[in-house]
Amino acid sequence: MDFTLPESAQAVRRGIADICSRYDMDYWQRCEAEKRWPEEVWAELAKGGWLGLAVPEEYGGAGQGLLELAVATETLSASGSAGGSAFMYVLTPGFGALTLARHGSAEQKAALLPKLATGEVETCFALTEPDAGSNSLAISTFARRDGDDFVVNGQKIWITGVQRASWMLLVTRTIPAAEARPRSDGLTVFLVNVPEAVAAGQLSYRPIPKMGANTTPSNMVFIDDLRLPASSVVGEVDRGVAVLWDVLNPERILLAASALGGAEVALRVGVDYAKQREVFGRPIGANQAVAFPLAQVKAKIELARLMLYKAAWSFDNHLPCGTEANIAKLTASQAAWEAADAAFQTHGGMAYSLEYPVARLLADARIGRIAPVTEELLLNYLATQVLGLPRSF
Asked: What count of other Cβ atoms lies within 10 Å of the Cβ of residue 57?
């Protein structure tokens, strides 16, 4: 059993780290405070070809996979961006390139993959709804056949990156949830040209004020008589669950990678302060009450990393990865929260000052325990699907 990362992933780590070395913690603090996309970093990622990692070579990409995307996300996050980096790899390389490379039609691949590889085109993903919440099979946004087209109506919530997206992957019902047998039938995924839909008055959005991750707005989305051609379907009509799992598992893996990087940067901030800050004549890190929580975090980071890489490797090798993705997401998010909390406690009162990055790291870490799926649902999956315990519903 070889635990060495392949050279392709190691090269990604070196390349992303080189870019990140030019952007310090203050840069990421400013991006968050100003609520602006990290344009400078995005431009360097695009110029260096780091956005096309998962795009097949015949479409101008690197022909790599989710493992390389996860390493890129982890490295970017650990540089100081923490949660602010997640969307840079989830939205376009993950939701867009990875999904279309597996499930797109020949026409969709030819039209979009080359532009996704360069960052010229960006994507977002719309699944969650106000009433359905975490029950994704209960969504009610409906696509009705009308001749050769579909007409879509509904609402979505917490849809991140609509403002920048050229295309949206939109998950709809084409069979109502109450009529679908099994319940996972009747889902259909569409590609939506966002600027065209907005200009036609068929799609609109409203940003949601939020406590963190403000480099990318999240939105309520309203869909009114949105007309889409049949050629915009990704995968098969009524069989979109196959596409959906190949979106949700990579999303969990990439967000686990972001959380893992966030845990690393929070641990580094906490350790540095524990070494430098002196009280009662010695560095506070000499006290076991300060040192042991930081040491516990280090152990949990390394354990989460093993499952993260296994989950990504399994996906790339077309092996079942749901259990691994859920465990990676659960453990990495918990490590990120414990790391940020330990850094906060280590800084004492100064952690509350926005002159330090700890408050931002804490806010970013908290997101991971509820989004894109709650910790409780991850545990419920492990309890019922892995351990075989009785379902509660």
From this structure: 11
